[in-house]
Design goal:
This protein is mainly alpha-helical. The protein is built from four helices and two strands, in the order ββαααα. Helices cover 65% and strands 6% of the residues. A hairpin with a 2-residue loop joins strand 1 and strand 2. It is globular. It starts with a strand and ends with a helix.
């Protein structure tokens, strides 16, 4: 997977798969990004994944990681965000099936 760059931050593929979600979120929280900025980042990543032929599942996984982080750490529940998570989780298995064919 190629590195992904956003606002001067470069995301490299993770070597340690067991803590990738924590590392991924720490990259952004250490840069003092607000929850609103994280939400926008997830939306941008989702658009990239929708239009990507390669590594879209990895990008979708990053979106879900951000959205789930926000669901756990915000005081207000967002039904729209919850639906986005569900839609992405439904797309990921379909992408894996299409790539095998």
């Amino acid at each position: 997977m190629l590195p992904l760059t956003f606002s001067g931050l470069t995301l490299q593929p993770f070597k340690n798969e067991t803590s990738k979600e924590i590392e991924f979120i720490n990259i952004f929280t250490s840069k003092k990004l607000t929850n609103e900025s994280l939400e926008r980042l997830a939306e941008i990543l989702q658009l990239i994944a929708e239009n990507s032929q390669e590594c879209s599942n990895k990008i979708y996984e990053k979106c879900v990681t951000i959205y789930e982080y926000l669901e756990k750490n915000e005081n207000i529940f967002s039904l729209e965000r919850h639906w986005k998570i569900q839609r992405i989780k439904n797309v990921i298995p379909k992408n894996l099936t299409n790539k095998k064919n």
